[in-house]
Amino acid sequence: xxxxxKIKLSHILVSQxxxxxxxxxxxxxxxxFEDLAQKYxxxxxxxxxxxxxxxxxxxLDADFADAAQALKTGEISTLVRTRFGYHLIRRDG
Length: 93
Fold this sequence. Notes:
This protein is of the alpha+beta class.
């Protein structure tokens, strides 16, 4: 697998696992990632629909970076726990 130095990402950050599971259910029901990020994410990126833009993998929490790198463009991760909380990560084009 190639190891890009930077990738384009969005995420939704919640405090509790059950909140993340709830957001994941809503995603599967067809609610847009951006709408869910604006409504539920605790990260300032929620104002941009969860977009983190082009991110240097070296600047990310290791578990977050590993999960993000494993995604294909447009794919959304399962819940990823970091010291900040629980993330749903989407790799953008």
